Amino acid sequence: MKIAYALLVLLSSFFSSVKAIESVTLTPSELKKAVNLINGLQNKILMSGSQISDVDTLFSHYTEDFVYIHEVYGGTYTRQHLYSNYVKFLKAGDYQRKDDRYKVTAMIAGHNAISVERQEIYEGEVVKHLSVFEFKGHKVSKIIEYWK
Length: 148
Hints:
- A hairpin with a 4-residue loop joins strand 1 and strand 2.
- The protein is globular.
- It has 4 helices and 6 strands; from the N terminus they run αααββαββββ.
- It is of the alpha+beta class.
- Helix 2 runs antiparallel to helix 3.
- It has a 6-stranded mixed β-sheet with strand order 2-1-6-5-4-3.
């Protein structure tokens, strides 16, 4: 009986702490800082000389149930699928950029989510991309891309 009670208390504490983490509301300043960090880490992976540890660092800022959604380019990717793709392309030598791919140009913060306008130079032209980053606690839980 004591073991069952102790287990119940332990599980209750665990679920309470998970709910507390998920109920954290980030300020607009915290959301913007987090997006700039993630953008920088994404850019770093695409650079010549990047390593798997760079992928690991990026993914340490994603929740375990993180998803990436880009309907135009494949739909929904799980955390594991996206991680595997990054590593595969890194090992194949596909990431050889000399300059950052994305520059954040505008952000609108909401409740634990932020819309982000990023620009890249693609084939000599400035192209703007719209993304939404959603957060659970201090980690990104979802990125949705709205561009072609």
